[in-house]
Every structure is written in C-alpha cells, then in structure tokens.
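USER: Fancy drafting a protein?

ASSISTANT:
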Amino acid sequence: MKMETMELIKTGRKKRRFRGHTATWSLALLAIILCGAMLMLGNTIYPAADVIRVLTGGDVPGASFAVSTIRLPRMLAGLFAGFAFGLAGNTFQTMLRNPLANPNVLGITTGSSAAAVFCIIVLHTSGAIVSAVSVAAGLATVLLIYFLSRGGTFSIGRLILVGIGIQAMLDALISYLLLIGAEQDLPAAFRWLTGSLNGSKMDQLPPLLLAVLLLTPVVLLLSRQLGILELGEQTAASLGVRTDLTRILLIASSVIMLSIATAATGPIAFVAFLAGPIAKRLVGAGFPSVIAAGLVGANLVLAADLIGQFAFTARYPAGVITGILGAPYLIFLLIRMNRKGEL
C-alpha cells in the first residue's frame, strides 16, 4: 500500500511537471511567433528571409530602415514590458493571496503615471527625465502603501485598501493636471496614459532590458519562498521563511521592473492583472508560474498591439485593446469573489 501511494505521488508529480513545462514552452513559442509577426507586418509586409537578413546585419533596401528603426524597438518594448508587467502582477497576486492585489489596483502604476503627467504638463520635460521620475515615483508609491498598511502586523486586506485609496488620490491628481495643462501638452500626456508601443526607440530600451534580465533571476530564486508565502504569514514563518525580508526583496524587484516598463510604454491596462491567473490555469497547480506569467504578459501586449494596428480601420494603442479584454474579467472576478464571500 505504501509503495502504491509513493508511485501515485511520483506519477502525479511527473504529470504536473509535464503540463507545466509544455505550457511554458508553448507560451515561449507563441511569443516568438508574435515577435516575428511584429517584425514582418506593417504598411509593407516583408518576408521572413528579409527580416532575418536585416537582423543579422545585412542590408535590404526599404526593409533595413523599417525593421531596425521602427519595428524592432516596438517589438522589444512589447516583449520586455509585457514580461515585466506579467511577472510583477503574478508576484503581487501570489504573495498577497488575492487576485485583486495587482499593481494596477494597488496604485503603483498610477504613481508612475501621475509623476510622468506632472513632468509633461507642469515641468514641460520629456524623454529620459520623465522615465526616471516615473520610476522613482513608482518606488515611492509602493513604499508609502507598504508602510501605511504595516500597522502592528502585516495585513493583506489593509494593504489593498490603502492601495486603492492611494490610487484614487493619484487618479484625482492626474485629472487635475490634465484640466490645467496647456493644450499642446495634452496629446503627449494622453498618449503616455493610454499605454502604447508607438514611438519606441532603441536608445530608450536598455534600462528595461537590463531590469528584466537582472531582476527576473531574483524573483526565480525566491519563487519557492513565494509559494510558501501563499500559504499564509504564520505558516511561512513556521517553515523558516524570513517573511519581511522575502517580501521586501520580491516587492522591490517587481516594482523596479514594473516602473521601468511603465516608463517605457505607459501603463498598459490589465496586463499585470490578467497574466497571473491565465498562467496558473495553463501550467496547473503545483508548478511555478513565474516565467509563464511573464510570457503571458508578453504575449498579451504583442497580440494587443498587432490587433490594434491591423484588426480595425483605425489604429488603436495596445492599452485600449488590453483594457477591452481586462474589464470584463475584472467584473467576472468581482462577481465570483462576492458569491464566495471573499469581498
């Protein structure tokens, strides 16, 4: 009987691993396909052979400029920003054990957005200054939310409520800034707030690429502790997890990635909210969803940008398309949580 139980456990573990690896590699393959489509499609459609020649340093008349100057930065911004949004959202939702506890609802992206709008409308700055200030504001926002919700002991409910309150105040500040802003500054502010890959340039991408490449391993190394934190504060502490230190490292890594991604593309709506639940459904229970969530986020942004460019007579930013997808899911989630008595 004991041997049969052990065999069943081993078989179940193999099945979970097979499903998780299959789902993750499938998401990676889909991301590669979408990246290829981003590079080939546009006003002029270039064959894959021409795109590969351009990427390997060859000169193809017409294609060289379009691919290397316009489409490649746009694709890289979508890939890495989407990955950062997805990974950060999944980290917050898992750590705080609540699907509503994502950076959009907690006001972190709103903090970055408010700082960027302030720079554009009040200081009349652009480019690197806006990016740097928005990153700093995102970090300041999460620190403010964390310390205001700390109290005697850490409380998930208190953190979410404080985050929602901070977000409401920052949304009001953004509305006020848009009301007093000069007419010539408003298009840039609205374009930034919508979340778009338009105007992405290679010289703006190194901070985003470095943040994702350097901080993703940090989250991966802490993924086991992240899974234990999902069991609850007391359980995690009893199993030897240094909860405060682990939480601070996870929050810092996720917020830095999120803020830099927001600075690069604007706050692309609902990607951080959708990526985690989709990834967990795909990989199944008992398999780490960190990389899968990042890949879902990347696929959402890339697909949304392609849909916004080519599916309609007018062209729409990626943030508009993800907002259309995310809003119904948010309503569904709220209804389901209400029925379960979780609200």
Summary: Residues 14-339 form a domain with the ABC transporter involved in vitamin B12 uptake, BtuC fold (CATH 1.10.3470.10).
